Amino acid sequence: MLAAAQANAQEAAPALPDPATVEVPDVTPSADPKVREEGYKFYYFHSPDVSFAEAYQDLKECRAYLPMSGPVKVPGFIPWDETQRRRTIESPGMFGLVGYAIGALIQPKVERGVRSNKMRRCMGTRGYVRYAIPEATWEKLNDDKDEGALILKQAKLASGPAPRDEVVTK
Amino acid sequence: MRGIALAALLTAAALPGGVASARDNAGVVALEVAPAALKPDAAYILMRTSTAKSGLFAIQHVFLRVPSAQELEAYRIAKKQAYDAALPKLTEKAQAKGKPVPTIEEFEFDYAGKANAFVVQNKRFLEDGEMRTLLLEVPPGKYIVYGSTLSQGLVSCNCLGTVSFEVRAGVISDIGSLYVDKVHKPSPVPHLEDNLGEQMFQYSFIFGQALVPADSNTPVPAALRGLAITPADFEVVGQYHEPGASSINRLAPIPGLLGYTHGRPVDLRTGQVVR
């Protein structure tokens, strides 16, 4: 799925549905202090300056950075001309064979953190900020196996009304 | 603290120790003594670098030389051979899991050929100081400021924008000063885009780099005076994918050269977005 996302990022933008037809979870700011505390892990992106289509394209391009392969060996050979279109298969993981055993215990949290860092940096450079949501809401926004549907949901929120809430900064 | 420990542990595990051949450092030799004369068939990179560390490990730059058509062809032939040899097992595994057989584009391949990416080891320097001055003897070609690392491997790529520079045989190309450090929090190293968010350090490192190109005021070691030295010419490099990096970042904006609009790299000399 993620490899497909990477490849798709370079394809022409599809005709998008009317955002009014895209169902999204409720992201009304929560009064629960735990939601605020864990906002660095569970959040959604928003920018007041983008359209639904622009948000879709930004999310699509940034999610194309999520696929991971085994670590790059340096010194080593990197086929530079393939870097725009390199795909990866299921690999021993970003931490290599040695780290695999260690990583197996904590991999889900580590992977979520690494993916979050990539999205934060990529979307952050495009002017998006983050707003905290409960973990269950985050899962609804991020666990969809349909990559296109997932991006549509996030794009609707990202380009929707500005939340009356604090921006997550940490 | 737990997150920090995990980051250190896992990054250490990620370092592919022993993979680099001592004979092949992408053809790069770090000179610790100024040469009396330049080799006519070798190129040289002169640079100054910051010396920040993370724990015991120096945070270092990674450069990539754009491979020639011949090098890419040799790589593709070797990859095809490896893929063909692996295909029976790949097919068996895929069928057992009910998944499609990986294509050659999806095939993870460990190429044993000549390297084109290398770590700029700041422990081998021409002159020490707050900024260390390095002189690298390298194959002529185009080099990209590709990312950064702690040792071997690649921690952060400049996948969101960077620059390249051409180095010619028989000449020292002065690229100026390069800075690198962890950037999840404020860094004492200047010029970086830092303080990106303390929690980014929970499970992974994020390093940032900055370049200040050489100009007529950039000091040159006295021992190099009399040799052919020229300021490097830079090109802006568009965004690229590097799934082997554990984090993504970009080279900090460079006044008059590298800017960003809506996150996309711009050549400030032309005003054009570079893709």
Brief summary of the model shown:
Chain A has 170 residues and is mainly alpha-helical.
Please characterize this protein's 3D structure:
- The complex is a heterodimer of chains A (170) and B (275).
- Chain A is mainly α.
- Chain A has a domain of 115 residues.
- Chain A contains six helices and two strands, in the order ααβααβαα.
- Chain A has a two-stranded antiparallel ribbon with strand order 1-2.
- In chain A, helix 3 packs across helix 6.
- The longest helix of chain A has 29 residues.
- With 275 residues, chain B is of the alpha+beta class.
- Chain B contains two helices and 18 strands.
- In chain B, the strands form four sheets. In chain B, strands 5, 6, 8, 9, 10, 14 and 15 form a seven-stranded mixed beta sheet that branches.
- The longest helix of chain B is centred in the first third of the chain and has 29 residues.
- Chain B is globular, with a radius of gyration of 20 Å.
- At the A-B interface, helix 4 of A face helix 1, helix 2, strand 6, strand 8 and strand 15 of B.
> What quaternary form is this?
heterodimer
Question: Which chains share the greatest interface?
Answer: A-B, 55 and 68 residues
Q: Round the mean pLDDT of chain A to the nearest integer and report it.
A: 82
User: Major beta sheet of chain A, specifics?
Assistant: 2 strands, antiparallel
Secondary structure topology:
The complex is a heterodimer of chains A (170) and B (275).
Chain A: H1 2-8, H2 33-37, E1 43-46, H3 52-63, H4 96-124, E2 129-132, H5 135-142, H6 147-158
Antiparallel strand pairs in A: 1-2
Helix pairs in contact in A: 3-4, 3-6
Chain B: H1 2-14, E1 29-31, E2 43-49, E3 53-54, E4 57-58, E5 60-65, H2 69-97, E6 117-120, E7 132-138, E8 141-149, E9 156-157, E10 162-167, E11 172-182, E12 207-212, E13 229-231, E14 234-237, E15 247-248, E16 258-261, E17 264-267, E18 272-273
Parallel strand pairs in B: 2-11, 9-15, 11-13
Antiparallel strand pairs in B: 1-7, 2-7, 3-4, 5-6, 5-8, 8-9, 8-10, 10-14, 11-12, 16-17, 17-18
